[in-house]
Design goal:
The complex is a heterodimer of chains A (about 110) and B (about 350). Chain A is built from seven helices and no strands. By secondary structure, chain A is an all-alpha fold. Chain B has a four-stranded parallel beta sheet. Chain B has a four-stranded parallel beta sheet with strand order 6-5-7-8, sandwiched between helices. In chain B, helix 6 (about 100-115) packs across helix 7. The relative contact order of chain B is 0.13. The chains are: A mainly alpha (about 110), B alpha/beta (about 350). Bound molecules: iron/sulfur cluster (2 copies).
Chain lengths: ~110, ~350
């Protein structure tokens, strides 16, 4: 066998029927940004915490939509609520509010 | 496959393809990937079917690879495109036919952009005058070379020496058709049959006696995807795309794959080697792969061209089992002889994928 330096990645296929839509609905009611995000990544690119940690609003939103709530929380655990991401979001999403809504939902 | 449904979709997406008088532009990469395909296209359309297809050595690449790799701005690409169109106009043509699917997508996207933003069109016309001193013009029709072969498929069938059937059993060969993403996924109305089930290659296979395989990942990308491949760190994604397609088509046991894009046949062909060498998996019979052919190569085989004149020896996956099925004779000794009998040398053989 030859190692070409790259490999077949396992399929990332998701069955959205298995995702608890209630959580997504509740969060979307708290902040509709979960629905309007276009996953452009501007927030992640501008995040000062993202340079040193895995902080990523974009990935956190996608994780929620894909039913990976724990991952979403982990991705925002180093967020300083500085609000830089809020200033760059082309969809005008109040990302700080979105982050706080997410943390409130899961951490109480 | 629910044939009636697809027929309905196909009839909704028909485009006008002029019968004759074309200005032809080549692909920048096909001549090294599949060296005889473009020559076969010109031979078939000009010499066998008597069409007027003009080309000039002054045309260039469309800039598509740089554009889709984000290394040049769109205005630069549009000026390159404007120059190509200006050359067509200068030579008295108004029908434009291109060999490459990426180019086809770039031409269509450019024309649509100009239609939506006339001020941008005026700026590009000005760029063209300043940089090349050429007169700005737009084609009446832009078609892909596979559109033209599709249009002429029945004429090719009438002159066919071989049909796409198993010479021993008389059964139609099972064929996977793979369309380049930029053919109609961006602008469905510009492709024969639309984006979901393009008919352009299916029409050829049906006309030449084969049978199309419908499989779950039929519309999945081949995996080229420009940046997926160009950046080595992403190359696993490219390979994974191809792997997904092969896993999906494997149960249907296709005899070969027909493609109409420069990247797709290359990646579907070469990644079979990488999958075999890294995973030990092959998708054809007895350790062979599934041959991947361009539509010009298939048309050439049907018309009785010598397989080695069509450049089939440059494929990674051996084509001999397919030629045997079709009953097409070939000289084993001449496989690695180039033009004028020049010895091209022998490639190293893979350890897993059977290539002879
Ligand atoms: S608010 Fe949090 S996620 Fe947004 S830029 Fe600041 S640290 Fe990053
Ligand atoms: S910047 Fe806004 S739209 Fe873009 S990924 Fe972040 S939250 Fe979503």
């Amino acid at each position: 066998m030859i190692d070409f330096g790259f490999h077949i990645t396992p399929s990332g296929t998701l069955n959205l029927d298995d995702v608890d839509q209630k959580t997504v609905d509740t969060l979307s009611r708290a902040d509709y940004g979960f629905r309007t995000c276009i996953a452009c990544g501007s927030c992640t690119a501008s995040c000062p915490a993202g340079v040193f940690s895995e902080t990523s609003v974009r990935q956190a939103i996608l994780s929620v939509l894909n039913g990976k709530d724990e991952k979403a929380l982990r991705l925002l655990s180093s967020c300083m609520l500085c609000g830089k991401c809020l200033m760059v979001c082309p969809r005008g999403i109040n990302t700080r509010h979105l982050i706080l809504s997410l943390q409130k939902q899961f951490e109480g | 496959m629910i044939y009636e449904g697809k027929r309905k979709i196909w009839s909704d997406y028909q485009k006008e393809i002029p019968d004759d008088h074309y200005f032809y532009v080549r692909s920048c990469i096909r001549q090294s990937f599949f060296p005889a395909s473009e020559a076969a296209f010109l031979n078939i359309t000009r010499n066998i079917l008597g069409r007027d297809v003009f080309e000039t050595e002054h045309h260039t690449t469309c800039g598509g690879i740089a554009y889709h790799s984000d290394t040049i701005p769109q205005e630069t690409v549009m000026t390159i495109v404007a120059r190509q169109f200006a050359l067509m106009h200068k030579h008295g043509y108004e029908n434009y036919v291109c060999s490459c699917i990426t180019s086809f997508g770039v031409y269509i996207e450019t024309l649509e952009t100009w239609r939506t933003f006339p001020e941008l069109e005026a700026k590009i016309a000005d760029n063209l005058r300043k940089t090349c001193n050429l007169e700005f013009a737009k084609p009446r029709f832009v078609v892909h070379a596979s559109d033209l072969i599709y249009k002429l498929r029945e004429e090719i069938a009438a002159k066919a020496k071989y049909k796409l059937v198993n010479a021993k059993t008389g059964e139609p060969l099972k064929v996977v058709e793979h369309i380049g993403c930029h053919y109609s996924k961006m602008f469905p109305s510009k492709g024969v049959g639309g984006a979901e089930y393009p008919y352009v290659l299916t029409g050829m296979i049906e006309a030449w006696g084969g049978e199309i395989v419908d499989y779950p990942e039929r519309r999945h990308c081949c995996g080229f995807g420009f940046r997926q491949y160009f950046i080595k760190g992403n190359r696993g994604y490219s390979l994974s795309n191809t792997h997904k397609k092969f896993e999906s088509m494997e149960p249907y046991e296709p005899d070969f794959i027909i493609t109409n894009c420069p990247g797709c046949p290359y990646f579907l062909d070469r990644w079979q080697y990488v999958i075999a060498e890294s995973e030990g998996k092959t998708y054809g019979k007895d350790g062979h792969g599934i041959p991947v052919l361009t539509y010009e190569e298939v048309a050439g085989l049907v018309l009785g061209f010598d397989p080695w004149d069509l450049g089939l020896q440059t494929h990674q996956v051996a084509v001999e089992p397919l030629l045997d099925k079709l009953g097409i004779p070939y000289d084993k000794e001449k496989k690695f002889l180039g033009a004028g009998g020049k010895d091209l040398g022998r490639p190293a053989l893979p350890s897993c994928l059977k290539c002879m």
